[in-house]
Amino acid sequence: MRIIHILPKINYGGGGIGDIFSEVRALQQFQIETYVTIVSLETAFSMERMLQARSLGIRLIVAPRKDTLDSLLLNTDLVVVSYWNHPLLTAFLVSWVSQNFQIPLVIRVNVNGLTLPQVLPSWVVHCASGILYSHPDTLTWHTDESLPSIQLFSPHFINMPEVIKKPERDNASDFVAFYAGSLNRFKRLPNLFDLHDRISLSQFRIEYWGAGEDPSTSDKLADLKFGVHKGFSKNIYTDFSDNHLLLNPQSHLSYGSYDKIRVECAWMGIPSLVLKESHIAVHVENGVDGLIASDELEYLEKLKWIARDIKAWESLSEATYHHIRKTYQLEEITKSTIRFYREVFSAGPRSIPHISLPLTPLSRLLSGMGHWSEFIISDPEKLSDLEIEYALHCEGGVIHYANMQGMDSDIKALIDRLFTVLENRGKRVSQESQREDLS
Fold first, then answer.
1. pTM score of the predicted model
2. How far apart are CA 80 and CA 4, in angstroms?
3. Which of 100, 169, 318, 334 could potentially form a cystine with 26 if both were Cys, beta carbons 3.0 to 4.6 Å apart?
4. Is 388 a residue whose pLDDT tops 90?
């Protein structure tokens, strides 16, 4: 089967390329023959990722011209789009529907598909012959009437370690809790570093692993009171095998999934600690393969408790190790995935009904913001500061679209309006503070 994967970009951690590599490795491991091409829409790329693709026999093409891309699409069996609210991806999907390509299209949702501005829009769902998603609630916001007759599948590939025995740890050494994932402030808990800086324990340390940091995150990492930034892990089974606890705190707005790293760490007997309000908590069974904290205070309490009580950690680690081996079967996931691809291919391209396509940069932008879009346009005062920050600054947000699609008058007006809301709030806070000082 000839498969083309469409990505917005290729870099260390983002864009979904790591998931595709894991999928291809699994297909090769179980001797399932596919011919894979990856197309990255942005011009920037990672040379290391390109070399990895080459070693796996994957053809990788960066920012092709439209005629080149059209030719590729016309000579494949299946197209898989790794969706998030990226300006080039939404433009590609609008073009796909407009040109009426007679090829089955699968939408792969790498984000949780639920949070501002990465909600999976109805018009994207209606483009698909099938949907692959890793978060079980990705499609729950759609009404039954809006869902077309498509096949849904939820695989998750991990790179299986060569050593399958549980790593032996020296419990006399430091207890190591670590964060692993994108360091982008929109995918983690915004106050992640400040939260951990409140901890004071002996024989305990925190490590931060990951890439994708923005300037404000880089400043924080350079000025940590507690913990150390270790960079991007190229082999988690080497880098993490001696560690004890995976820290995955997210806010209710964080849009990363983290399930892949959670499973890979569980394979080494490393449980996770997460916040209940986050979308990652649905992947964790409290007390079985991790701990769920109701709020930040309980998060710190549970972190301190498990670090001090090594017997409790050993019990949870053992439960995590056995639980993942019962619930995760790479061979079945691999065979189910290729079966899904073949069923979608055999069914042929879905007859796409009339879709109200978002034809302007602003409408494409807003389509990925779900129910938040009505407030962004009509009453941004109802949005919290954090929601406005997500709408403005994160990937798939207003400024991202302005930079990549052009600053048209509609987007410029929206940016001005959202910043005005924040400025007015700042003035009110300042005035209230001055009144308190006078009183």
1. 0.91
2. 6
3. 334
4. yes
Determine the Cα–Cα distance for residues 260 and 243; give it in Å rounded to an integer. 17
Rounded mean pLDDT of 99-122? Answer: 91
- Give the pair of three-digit tokens for residue 253: 């707005």
H/E run at residue 292: strand 290-293
Picking from 272, 394, 439, 413, the residue whose alpha carbon sits closest to that of residue 14 is: 394
Output the six-digit token pair for 207.
């490590």
- Contact between 379 and 425 under an 8 Å Cβ cutoff? The reply is no
Nearest alpha carbon to residue 373 among 122, 3, 32, 53: 122
Give the Cα separation of 131 and 237 in Å (integer): 30
The predicted structure's pLDDT at residue 377? 93
pLDDT of residue 157: 83
Give the model confidence (pLDDT) of 20-78 as tens digits: 999 999 999 999 999 999 999 999 888 888 899 999 999 999 999 999 999 999 999 99
% helix / strand / coil in the chain, to the nearest 5? 45, 15, 40
- Altogether, the residues listed in the chain come to a count of 439
pLDDT at 438 over 70: no
Token pair for 394: 């994160």
In which band, very low, low, confident or very high, does the pLDDT at 216 lie, cut at 50, 70 and 90? confident
Question: How far is 254 from 190, CA to CA, in rounded Å?
Answer: 9
DSSP 8-class letter at 167: P
Give the CA angle between residues 388, 394, 400 to the nearest 5°.
Answer: 105
Residues 363-398: b if buried by 16+ CB within 10 A, e if exposed: bbbbbbbbebbebbeeebeebeeebbbbbbebbbbb
| Signed CA dihedral, 220, 223, 224, 225: sign only | negative
- The tokens of 157 are what? 């590939």
